Structures are given as structure tokens and as C-alpha cells.
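On clarity, I found the account of how folds are encoded harder to follow than it need be. For illustration, here is how one protein appears when written out as sequence plus C-alpha cells.
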Amino acid sequence: MPEEMSIFPRIALKPEVHDYLRNVFINKEVLAAVSQGEAEQRFQRLLSCLSHPPALTCVRASTHLASLEEIQHRLGEELKQQQKCDSQSEDISVTILPHPHIPDVLLLPVIGPRPVVQLTSEVIVGAQCGSAVLRGAHVFAPGILATPKFMKTGDAVSVFSDLEGKCTRGNKDFKGKKVFVGNGVAEMDRSNIFCSDEPVKGVGIRMVEPLYQSPSFDGVLPSLAFLQGEVVALDKIRGKVERIRQNAKALHLDCIKAHCFNSIKAVCTDQAQDTEGPPFPPQSFDRVLLDAPCSGLGQRPSMVCTWNLKEICSYQPLQRKLFHTAVRLLKRGGVLVYSTCTVTLSENEEQVAWALNTFPCLTLQPQEPHIGAEGMLGAGLSPEQLRLLQRFSPELGWSAAEARGEDGSPTEQPESPTPLAHRANKDTIGFFIAKFLKS
């Protein structure tokens, strides 16, 4: 795909990671099925699309508390009010549509890149903060690296993301590689951001002209999103566990029990143990979701990945340890779902091939709905097995020109449900799902 179709540069990777990922997408099995040129083109599209946000934001609705139609209406009103406050505009149009295949998911288009004129005053933020801005967030003070020397509250500024991680905190005139993400208004003086004795927090820059218009869900209908069924959740990071508990409380769900625990050690050896929390006896669960720690190379937008190859490859052994635990905890006749948000073979299809080899009790199962692409060639899986997997590959259907016109507006009318629904299953982050049955 020609580079001029992308408003952002391709994701920056260390050379060793670039070569590793290229070999994944141009492996022998792929080349036996398609030409070298076609495989290379797919890889280059991947690098381009990863630096851009998806064309849609998907919202999971709590349909146990209200109907999808009521949530759709209330969400539209909330977002309309939010945009009116941010843009001071009276003419606000908010498009929200139900997902065509998933009954409790709503879709909102992400509009952009928009024709935003850059200002002379520049604020530099970290790459992670810049990515959050492209998904609708304001700039929180901890993410700010550099500001004009005399920036005061109320100043209009342009926000740039530091692409190479070379901007030092407190810089006044950064000259490194950066990318424009939109305009905002300072909510703090420079001195409050960099000279405070206390840890800085709160919104530092309120975005009023983001390059991509994407809804922010901070504080929007907190009790009507992210429905779960009955769940025992394990995570070894205490902060994540606390957020799970807070979300469950906000959603009025008393069926979620979250524990701060290392999942690798979640199977107890003492069969007589009778406690509510982990570790658990073998075959305790009807269903297990292994949402595995991964390299995260499918996340969008992501303009730079600073990890080296050793770090990228460190997840496969950890995932296999977790797989052993998950299989032991699952009852016979139970379902195990394995998922990642990365695009490598080693963490996705190769893990499936390894699991089928290691655990004869596991068989792949069809997934419903099946809205992603099939698995990727290269791990020795049969065509039938690949068809049972779901690999969401944004590079297969992504085109910057298709979703965004030359003037920054969508080339297709957002109020038309057909093109939006069409992109809902394609213009996603890169992620992977495999479903197993334990016999």
C-alpha cells in the first residue's frame, strides 16, 4: 500500500523485531499459498494500520439492566452533551448503531483524520498518551513531557506524540521526531505540571480539536457498560483486581469474585482444601477464559514499540504455563477459550498447535459468532483447524483512503448502517481467539 495513504508513519519497531515479524507474515506456508508480493503487501499494510486508530469504537451494553434500545438512546444523549461541552457547538450529530452480529454491542464511528490546523505553541506527550488521545482521551498531566516555556491555563496548544521516547520531562523546545494528534486548551500552568512537590494528576490539556473525533467514555453511563456473567477473576497485579471490583460494584454485579493471585499457581495440591478463593481443586470450572499476557502487537493506535526481540518472545513460555493451569482447572466437557491481542504466530496459532499436541483431551470447536478471519498459515495446522480459529487481522481490510477522505471526513456516510457494520468486523485491533473442548 502506498505510504501517502497514511497520515501517520508506520509503527516504529526495533530492526530485530521488524525482521522477526516480517518472517511471521512471509513464512513458508504463506508463500505456498500466495505470492511473495502479496505476502509482503499484507505485512506492509499491517505496519501502516497499527499506527492508526480503528474506524469504530465498540461498546458492550449491560442489557441485564436496560434494553439495548434504551442504552443506545441514553448513550447518544450523553455523548451529544459531552461533545457540546467540548466543542461549544450547537450542531452535534452522534451516530450509534447496534452490531449486526453481537446482540449487546453498540458501534460508534471514529471520524478522522480531520482538517485541524496546527498552532505555534506545542505540547509533547508520551507515545502511550498520544495513542490514548487518538481514541478520545484528554491529555492527563502525567503524560505531558514538554510545554512552551510560559504556558498558562487557557492557552491554546497543539499536542504532539513523541515517537522515539527521546523527549526529557520538562523540555521547553523539543526537536525530535513527533507526530501531531490535535489541538487543545491548557488546564494547568507549566509550573503546576513540572514544579509541583506532589505527584501531578488530573487533566493537563483538554482536547478541543482532536485529529480523530472519537467518543470518550470517561464517566459516561458507568452502570450500563461491560456486562459479564458469573466470573472468578484472577490477576497478580493488585491494581487491576481493584479496578475489577470497582467495575463490578458500579455495574451492580455481585457474581464477580476477583482475587489477587498468580494464576500459574491456581491449582491446589491438597484435594481436601475447602476455601472460597484460590488455589482451586482440579476440574473446578465449567468454563475458563485464558486472556493471556502477550506482546500486545495488535493494539491500535500504536506508533512505536520499544521492546526488543527477547521481550517480544518472552510471552510464549508464560502462556504455556498458564495453559497447563487452565486445562487442569477445567472440568471434562468444559470449554477453554484462549485469546491474545497480538499478531505473532508464536503466541497464537503455534500455541494452538502446541496445545493440541500437549493435551490430547482438547479439541478445537466452532465459534459463534465467527466474524473474524481464519487462522494464519505457518504453524502446521490443517485448513479445517485454521477455519475454527478467529484471527482479527486489520491489515486484510484496512485502507486509510477507504475510511477517510482527503478532507478528513469519512468517504461513506456514517448514518448509513451498511458500511459501518461492514467495517465493524474488519477495522479492529489485531487479536486472536481459539475455543477448545475438554473431553
The two ends are 45 Å apart (CA to CA). Residues 414 and 420 are 7 Å apart (CA to CA). The first helix runs from residue 15 to 25.
